[in-house]
Amino acid sequence: MIEPEIVWTASVKGTALLALAWMVSLAIRRASAAARHLLWSMALGGLLALPLLLLVMPAWHVRVVHVPALASFESAAATGAASPARVNWEDLAFFVWLAGAAALGVRLLVAWTSVWRWARGAKAVDSRVPMLESDRVAMPMAWRDCLTQVLARVACCFYWFHPLVWLAAREMQREAERACDDRVLRAGAKASAYAGHLLAVAQTLRPAGYCWATVAMARRSQLEGRLLDILDPHRDRRALTRGAAAVAALAVASLVFPLAALSPQQPEKPYKVGDGVTAPRLIERVEPKYTEEAKDAGIQGQVELSVEVEPDGRIHKINVNKSLDPGLDERAMEAIRQWRFEPARKDGKPVTVRALISINFRLADEPPDGLVKPRLISRVEPDYTEEAKNARIEGEVELSLEVQPDGRAHKIRVEKGLDPGLDENAVKAVSQWRFEPGKKDGEAAAMAATVVVRFRLK
Fold this sequence. Notes:
There is one protein chain. Helix content is 42%, strand content 22%. It is of the alpha+beta class. It has 3 domains: 240 residues, no CATH class; 96 residues, TolA/TonB C-terminal domain; 90 residues, TolA/TonB C-terminal domain (2-Layer Sandwich).
């Protein structure tokens, strides 16, 4: 059974195939009509082959560059009412496609049935040539030897929503008419007499309503360009050889088969920490900034975010689980996009994991008039030493420091130690922290500060 993904994938790949066909048609615009007709026939045949090949061929995965999606904002007020059901747009679009394809399929079937019934009631004109005559049909038309016409109509049924397919089918029919004209002229017909005959047919006769299943001899909408081509003595009217057709078919097959198999490599599904999957470790942290509106309103609290930590240590697919304030939610997401992790691992390989992150917003105590305290904006987490890890040492290291006007920490000193190795690593980490410097009377100034570095084993 055809799935929605098959239809949409075939449409995208079919667009690439048709775009290439248009470029080739421009390159061979001075070739014979038979060559151009073969081009469009092969392109439409490739379009019909794509969904079949997508069903039966194994996918050839190609690694693509990952482009992180914009963070989605999914905060909602907690209420007792059930959330309204969401419309599945993909299923709705597939239903619309199915209805359109079925409607056109019925139209084509009715046209074929009408022609078949007409042919049964017609009488043979010449036993040497399969030619029929009926008083129910006025416009001469071909209907038994129109395989390419059938391919075009079926392609239009399947890709009914795709304008390029309809344009390609029109071009194929136009080139089919010109190729037939070239064959008549190669057989020895005089160009002026043949053009006059076509003009008389188009002026006096009209195609029947079931011409969707046949090819009419002359259509008024295409007649002017067709007559000019017939009367052009320099037009290339050569027929295609079987060898040229075979080469063209091989070229199209060598393009359509890889195109059908080509598939972007799907991103792996995120793991959960546990069962052999280690937790990611934060190594670089950027603190969020308060918005002026939230600061003036005195808003404090916590924003809870669900994220995916990728194998490159970056965060993607950020969702707000617990909202605090729209502005602070956005600031929290802006900050954690800049965080860097040592990735989670499974069997020694970096993997994507889901994680929950809580961002706390707290308003600092008001400093004395004219003073603004330094504010941490970028943080590097310290490493555990193997000795402390094996000894299961946990706790806090308290450091005093001086934040310079350039936002860097200097004169770092251990005020309350935990372990010599951990104390040293805490000093190394804090030396890489970056601050928004303190201010005195509006000017950046060096200020003393105390920070606490926590060590916790996971």
